[in-house]
Each structure stands twice: as structure tokens, then as C-alpha cells.
User: Fold this.
Amino acid sequence: MNNGAYLGTSGGPRLRGSAPVFTARALFKTYGTGETAVHALRELDLDISAGEFVVLLGPSGSGKSTLLNILGGLDAPTSGRATWRDHELTGATEADLTRYRREHVGFVFQFYNLIPSLTVRENVELVAEIASDPMSPDEALSLVGLSHRTAHFPSQLSGGEQQRVAVARAIVKRPDALLCDEPTGALDVETGKLVLAAIERANREVGSTVIVITHNTAIAGMADRVLRLGAGRIVGEEVNASKLSPEDLQW
Amino acid sequence: MVKVLDRKVWRDLSAMKGQVLTIAMLLASAITVFVGAIGTYMSLLESRDRYYQDSRFADLWAEVERAPRSLLGPLSEISGIASVEPRVVKDVRIDWPASDLSISGRIVSIGRRSETALNKVTILRGSAIDPSKQNEVLINAAFAESWGIEPNDGIAVILNGRLQTFRVAGLAQSPEYVYGARPGSPLPDDRTFAVLWGGEEAVANAFDMEGAFNSLSFSVAPGSSLPRIVADLDRLLEPFGGRGAYDRTEQPSNRFLSDELAEQRTLALAVPVVFFAVSIFLLNAVLGRLVQAQREQIASLKALGYPSIPIGLHYLKFVGVICAAASVVGIVLGAFYTDGMLAAYRPFFRFPELAAHVPYWVPAVGIALSAAAAGSGALNSVRRVLRLRPADAMRSAVPGHTAKVIGVRLNARAKMMVRGLVGRPIRTLVTILSLALAVPMLVLGLFWWDALAYMIEVQFDRIERADAIVSLTDARPERAVYELAGIPGVLMAEGQRVVEARLRAGPRTYRLGLTGLLRDAELRLPRSEDLAPIDIPKSGILLTTELANRLGVMPGSLLAIDLLEGRRTSATIQVSGLVDEVLGYNAYMDIDELNHLMRQTGLVSQVSLKVDPRQTSSIWPELSKRPRIAGTTIKSVLLQIFDEKVRSIIIIAAVVLTTFGLIIAVGVVYNAARIGLQERAWELASLRVMGFTRREVSNILIGDLAVQAMAALPIGLLSAQGIVSLLLGLRENESFRIPAVISAGTFATSALVVIGAAVASGLLIRWRVDRLDLVAVLKTRE
Ligand SMILES: Nc1ncnc2c1ncn2[C@@H]1O[C@H](COP(=O)(O)OP(=O)(O)OP(=O)(O)O)[C@@H](O)[C@H]1O
Ligand SMILES: [Mg+2]
Assistant:
């Protein structure tokens, strides 16, 4: 649509790609009213380019998840505007947002959100079945290094393995955007690295634009760009000259 | 810490409003039916017992042609007889110009010492008669009310062929006519049958019975053997035309009342008890599943270190609040139900007072049983969860690989659905069973209409083909049939012979009017169970199935018959077949054979008529003018009474059961759907996050419900037929036999209601899925 009108007011330099895929302008998100009102986002502006790997840092309660959910079409801001390419994310109908998530977005959350009654392969197939140009579930599973566990149920896997299934499920549709909210929050270092490696491959090989929320500043080394949130605003931004591979991260 | 859990009770209650409400309604329905039906039964029993006691209802009766008062001495000396009361009881006709139909009546003499008499006549309005006056009578309230007769009105009575006008002193009631049906008529018709009580002298004079009596009633010393006294009485009374003494079980009004109470016991008791049992099973299942759905919460409470008992108590409180609210509603509605039923019985059973007497244990038991069912449902689930180690409880079980078993390639969502069903087979079975039992809950209410329609068709169309049955004052030659056949508009007339008889098979006896039919009779067609007409045997006797059961005989058995009229002969005769009837216990034989047993030929005592329906307005008055007619039973009138009285009793029960059946069926289906959603909300929200549409997501759940409902329907329909047959098979009763007939319409309606409830619940699921809070789900793990 007319997202070009905001190009000039970009919040930061664009390292990869040219036009921003995600834009946010003056986003507010307020829970409740009056005395008890909580402002999760306050006049937040943001631009993210195609194929960019962005890490979002910030203290607990700073609004990271809220922002990610709005960009992923799961939540609506109280005011302001958010777009993805030519998709208007604010004010879109529920059906439009569903189609947006279905066609363009992959999610990975701290809790793996796998369907317990489906096997590993079936959890991935579930998404492949409704995607327009999916990779094969086995390919997605081999990208996360789980080709040998496809017939197991989630309850038979470790947390890290479950999280890698969640990543495979998110990338099987070759998502334009891969949104991850604390994907390593519940995992140890080595397992966390495996999961991050899977996310990184998606960014590199599928070309997904990736946003990762984390409390682990070490992970920021993987990013093209690191955004810091504080009290509902972007309070800092760093651009990494060179990205580290997950194996080289130290924490 | 208990305080916090208490707050959770209220929060859970309000969070699950819909479910809590439907469960409470289910429970309230069950308690209402339980309290109402048992209350009705207990009230009828209590009213009867009190009335019989207060009015000194006799223990034994005997009728004779005529016996002198000098016989009273020897009678009272029979050991075991506590008191004897002689009376004159005669059939009369009432000359009541306002009525098209002939009105028959019975006049009973009352002595001067009527205050201490047996079968005390209670004056409801007006005053007692002055025994010194010859022209005063009391009249039964049922007849008086149906014609608007007031004390001091006049009434013309044909006594012994002479017309005499009496002053009505008062409206009265006696324990002998609680159920006031004219002899020979299966139903009480207040408009065409009157009971009159007159002064001893007046009645005796009218019938030339001074110093004599023709009817006796006795009270018996406690502990005496009735059969022995009956035998002694019969011996003493034989020379005076004794018709055989009989006790309360054969006293017509009491017999019908007992039968009706037996009917109540099975229908208004067994049906509600089954209804109640099914409801509390459903309650148990629904609450069990509701608690099961809180598995994670229970596990985390336990993981937090809460001991099992406070956790169990917490859920008991939750159930307790629901039970308490439902009990209050159930008791109040149950009281209304009792009052409604008793109001329907009042015109049927004439007790001076028919009030609710519901013992405290009835609601107490109803509530205790339902609370136990609800509590155990909840506690079982809590216990099952607590038995698990917290880690296991918080992790879901490994489901089986079922897709291959089914053999069809299913998509992942279909697999989710199938595994949801197959992976927890017990829960699925209980849900299917609960949904299935919703069907009989509805059928139990709806089938009454089918049964009534069937009863009316069979009894008043197939079996009884005559439009009117004229009873003659005494047995007369066949000429009487031709006389009636000659009335313009009478299309067909058939004579019958009815003789009062006692049937005996070993120790079992039954007294009835034994009917002799023409071999080729067309106006009364006894039928077999499959409704095929049964020929009247040349020799031998046909019994209704219930009568045969009561006497313990089968086709081929020999039966002793004591004829209680005329020469009082006895004979042994073979049971040649069984017939099925809805109304009454009956026995049929060939009219010639019966006359032969009476040592008579060619006599008839009643005449069945088929008439031109356009001419009834001239035929009925003509009949009431003819002499030697004791009374006429008109089918359309009988049908009307059946409709007014029997129907009203049945319909109240049916409406109540249907309404509550509906509430329960909807409640069960709704809860199955709601709990299904609750159990899977997290999964479904995850699917929504992944981009599945609302329709796709709700279809998983709706499919789940649909599969269970489809599995449930055939089970439900079969179990409905089974439950109804079982209930109606329990009964032994003679007033009317309600057949286990369930029409296709009733089945279809019940199934459609369940399907409808499922569809509505499906829409509700859709509505709920549309409102799933996706973001909230992401913050928790399952
Ligand atoms: N449903 C809600 N109702 C009220 N307040 C909410 C709700 N959801 C989030 N908040 C508030 O909004 C603010 C931002 O929440 P958000 O989940 O975005 O934080 P976050 O940065 O992701 O924190 P964390 O790192 O702990 O996950 C918080 O103060 C939170 O309390
Ligand atoms: Mg967060």
C-alpha cells in the first residue's frame, strides 16, 4: 500500500535489502485504563529490512513480546500503525491476520507449543499441509538435526529437541518472517546453540527475516542489528559489523 | 492458604458459568422428578391410609339377595368378626332431565348409629340426613359437582320402578366410593353415576326390605385369618343368596385405587427413579470430566505442596455450591410437581382431603444421592490426578499411532481428532454413553403420547367396536336384543351375558364380571398380543394376559369358576387362550356355554350397539327412557373421561419428564462440547497462532463432538427402547396397561433434539474459538 510514505523516517540504517518489510509507527499498546493502566508500548517506531536478523533485548516487562505479537499478527496495538510489506497489520480483520500468519510467518516460543497427540513429523506436516510452497517435513527436520526422531511424540523428547521441532515446524513453510520469543529461554547452552543454529540456517538458506527476543546478550552477536527496548520504546540500537555463528557464541 | 482456594471456588464457578448452570439445572431436574414423583406417591398412600382409618373402612363385605336381621347374631359370633353392619344397597336410576344419557345410581342405607358406623359417610357440604325423614338423601360429591347440585336441591330417583323425589341434604363422600365407577365400567363417570345415601327406613321401605338387608360390611379383629372368615361367612350366607364374601382386595373402589397406586409405584416411581439414576450418572460423568480438565491446575497445586485433602475439599466445595443451589430449586419445583399431580388425581380419587404428605427423607435422599454422585464424580477425578506424580500429571500421555490402524491417510488435524478420541478411550466411552443416555431422557417423556394414542386405538377401536353397551337390570331372553336393535339409528346389536364370578386357581382368586360373547361376535373382538382377533372357544375361557399372570395360569391350565349369581354353580374350565387388553382384567367365554353353566338358555344381560353417529342425539335419550336398563356405557363418553382424567395424570408426568429430559439432554451435550473445548483450548490456540483459520480449528472440535454424537445416537435409541420396555414390563396392574410403544416420531424427535443440541453446541464452540485469547496461551505451557 502506501508504506513508501514512511521510508524517509526510518528508525535506523538498513544493512541488508533495501525496502523495510516491517514498519511500525507510533505504536501504543495499553492494557487497562485509568490508574491501573499498563503501557506496554509507548510511541514505538521501527523498520526492519527483508532478510535481516534482528535481536530484541530489554528488561522484563519492557514490551518485547507485545511488539513481536503485533508484528506477527497475533495482537493489535491500541494506536499507531504496523505494516508488513503491503499488508496493513493494524486494523486488519481477523481473517486477514490469519492468512498473513499462515502464508508468511513462522513462530517459535519459549514453550514449545507442540501438539502432544501428533508425532514429530506430524507436527511439522501439520503446517506443511496448509502452506503454499513448503519444504518437505523431512527436510525441515534435517535442518534442525532431528531426522532420526521423526516418529516420536513430543512427550518422548527433551526440551531442546522439542524446541528444535518447533523451529522445524516454523521454517517448513519457508516463512518470510521467523519470529522467536525467547527460543532458548528454557534450554542449556549447548542445546540453545543447536536451536539458534537452526534459526540461523533459516535466515541464511530460506532468506527469512528473523526477529529473536532474548535475555541473553551473548546471542546478540548473531544479529545484523540489535535493538534494545526499555519501557515500551526502542532505547538503543547497535549494528554488528560482523555476525558470529552460533557455535562461536560464549555465555 | 485455604482462603485463596476458597476464592478459587467462586472464580471457577463464575468462569464456568455456562457449565455450572447446565449442571445445576440437570441436577435440579433430577431432584424435582425424584421429589415430585415419590412425593405424589407417598401423598396418595398417606391420604388413603388416613382416610380409611378415619372413616373406618370395612375389612370384609358380602352381598346376599335378602336376609333377615335375625342372622346378625350368628354372623357376629363368627370368630374374628369385630363388628357387622347390615345395609340395603340397591341399584337405581336417576331421573335427570338435563342429561341426554341415562344416569344410573346406587342407593345405600345408613343406620341411626352412623357416627360409629363402618365406611363412615363424610358430609362435605350441607348437613346429615334426619333419619326420621323419609325423603332426604346424601349424594356423592363427584356427581353433585358435575351437575352443579347444591344442598336442598331436589332429585328424582326411580326406586324399584317408582319415581320418588328426595331433598339433597348434603354432598358426601365415603371410602367405598373413592374411585366411583359404575359397576361394569372401567372408568369413573361422575356425570352418569350417582351414589345416594338414604335413611334406613326409607330405603328399606322402598324395596320392601323392612327387617332385612342385602349387603353386609364387617370389621375384623386384628390377626384373624380372612380366608377362614370368608369361608364361614359364605357357608352362613349361602341359603340367602350369598354372592361370596370378599375383602378389601376385591372391593371395587379399593381395588382400583390399589392398582392405580401400583401403577404410580412403577410409572411415577420407577420412571423417575431411572430418570434420576441416569441423571446422576450424567452428573457424575460431567463433573468428573470437568475436574479432569483441570488436571494441570491440580497437579501444580500438588507440586506446590498442597496436601491432597484441601485439594479434594476445594473441588467438593465447588460441587457443593452447585448441589446446594440445585437442591433448593429441585425441592421447590418438586413441591409444585407434587401439587400438580395431586390436583390431577383429585377428580379421579375422591378423598375428602388429598394433600401433599411428603416425608422429610424424600428430598433428603434425593439430595444425598445426587450430592454423592456429584461429589464422587469430582473426587474420583481429583484422586486420579493426585495419584500421578506431579511430573507425569503435567506431561501428557503418549498417544498411540492410530492413523495406520484406520488405514486411511489422514491429514494431521484429522489425526489429532482421532487420537484425541482413541487415545483416551474411557473418557470417550463415557462421553458417548452420556450423550447416548440423553436420548432415553427425552424418550421417557415423549413416549407417553405414543402410548396413549396406542391405548386409545387398541382399546376403543380395535377391541371395543361397539358405540354403546347397555346393561340390563337382569338377564333377559334374546328378544331384548331385537328390541334395542329396532331403535331407529341402531345399526347392529349384539347380546352378551355378564355373570359375576369368582375365578380360582389354587389359593389365588379373582372376582369379576365374566363375559359371555357370541362365537361370531363383531362388536367386541378380543385380540392377541399382535392384535389378531381371537375366536371365542366353544368351551374354555379366554383371559387377559395380566389376569392369567395374577392367577398364575397359562393356556391349558384348569381354572375353577364359582358363578355368584342365580344357582351359584361352580365348574372347572380350561384356559384356552390369552388376550391382550389395555383396560381392565377380563375373561371371556362362549355365551351359550356360560348360559349353560348358569343352567339357563338364551339369556343376555347386556347389549352392545353400533349406531349411526348422526342419530345419537335421539338414540341416547331413547335408551334412558326404556325400562329394565340399568345403565349405558357410551364409548365416546368413556373416551372423553379417559381423555380428561387418565390423560391429565399422564400428561403432567409426561410434560415434566419431557421438559427435564430436554434440559438434561442439552446440558449433557453442551458440557461435552464445552469440556472438549476446555481440554483442547491450548492446542487449538496454538493452531490459530500457526495460521489455521477459525473454521479449521473449530472443525477439529466439532468433528470430535459429531463423531461422538453419531456413535451415541444408535446406542441411545436402543437403550431408550430397552429402558421403556423394562420399566413397563415391571408392572402388574389392572386399571390400564401402558404399552411400551415408541413411535418413529418420538425416536426421531429425541434424536433430533440431541442432534440439535450438538449443532447448537458446535456453533457455540465456533463462537468460543473465535474468541480464544491467542496471546494468553503463549504465556503458559500446557
Ligand atoms: N494481558 C495483559 N494485561 C495487562 N498487562 C499486560 C498484559 N500482557 C502484558 N502486560 C504488561 O505489558 C508489559 C509488557 O509485557 P511484555 O510481555 O511485552 O513484556 P516482555 O518484554 O516480553 O517481558 P519478558 O521479558 O518478561 O517476557 C508488562 O508490564 C506486562 O505486565
Ligand atoms: Mg516476553
Remarks:
- Residues 189-206 of chain A form the longest helix (18 residues).
- Chain A touches chain B at residues 65, 69, 74-75, 94-95, 98-103, 105, 107, 109, 111-113, 115-119, 122-123, 125-127, 129-130, 151, 153, 155-156, 169, 181 (CB under 8 Å).
- Chain A has one domain: 20-243.
- The pocket of magnesium ion (ligand 2) is lined by residues A 64-65, 181 (CB under 6 Å).
